[in-house]
Amino acid sequence: MRCPFCRNADSRVVDSREVDDGQAIRRRRSCSGCGRRFTTSETMVLAVVKRSGVTEQFSREKVVRGVRRACQGRPVNDDDLQQLAHRVEESIRSAGLAEIPSHEVGLAILGPLRELDGVAYLRFASVYRAFTSIEDFEKEIADLRAAMTTGGANPATDSGTSDDSR
Ligand SMILES: [Zn+2]
């Protein structure tokens, strides 16, 4: 990497440390030409393999773009989307693989999106999972309801079921 000050191609590493939980390495370099210091950063390139076999670099922006479409008209702001993309990237990188099939990216989006907004989740899932019938939606909504009610007491429902948790 050339010195950003004098374009000299030769530099010496004076310090090197892991950042982002070991996901990246940052190096402090000293130019052997002008003696000035600059920092370089190295991250593992995460490749996404599309169905066609073409690979492209994973991009948070793409995740945001894909999810934003499903969030139209929903109370979801840009921060929410950025945070979601960050979570998706973390969960994908935690697998420690250099390449990941594109459908795995979609899969990693579903969980955080479901927590964010149920309607956006249904829209995204219907495309991602290629829903073909109303039954597909009904099943997904049933799962969504189940996930939303587990763990939280719901005083609004009066189904008459006995509380056997005691
Ligand atoms: Zn220099």
Order of helices and strands: EEEEEHHEHHH
Structural class by secondary-structure content:
alpha+beta
The hetero molecules present are: zinc ion
End-to-end distance: 66 Å
Give a short overview.
42% of the residues lie in helices and 20% in strands. By secondary structure, the chain is an alpha+beta fold.
Detailed description of the structure:
The protein is an alpha+beta fold and 166 residues long. The chain has 5 helices and 6 strands, in the order βββββααβααα. The strands form 2 sheets. It has a 3-stranded antiparallel sheet with strand order 1-2-3, with no helix packed on it. β1 and β2 form a beta hairpin. α1 crosses α4, α2 crosses α3 and α3 runs antiparallel to α4. Zinc ion binds next to loops. Its cofactor is Zn(2+). It holds the Pfam family ATP-cone. Keywords: ATP-binding, DNA-binding, Metal-binding, Nucleotide-binding, Repressor, Transcription, Transcription regulation, Zinc, Zinc-finger.
List keywords for this structure.
single chain; 166 residues; alpha+beta; three-stranded antiparallel sheet; three-stranded mixed sheet; 20% strand; disordered C terminus; binds zinc ion
List the helices and strands and how they pair.
Elements: E1 11-19, E2 24-31, E3 37-43, E4 47-49, E5 55-57, H1 60-70, H2 78-93, E6 99-101, H3 102-116, H4 118-128, H5 134-149
Parallel strand pairs: 4-6
Antiparallel strand pairs: 1-2, 2-3, 4-5
The protein binds zinc ion.
Zinc ion (ZN) binds next to loops.
InterPro entries: ATP-cone_dom (IPR005144), NrdR-like_N (IPR055173), RNR_NrdR-like (IPR003796)
Protein name: Transcriptional repressor NrdR
Domain ATP-cone: 46-136
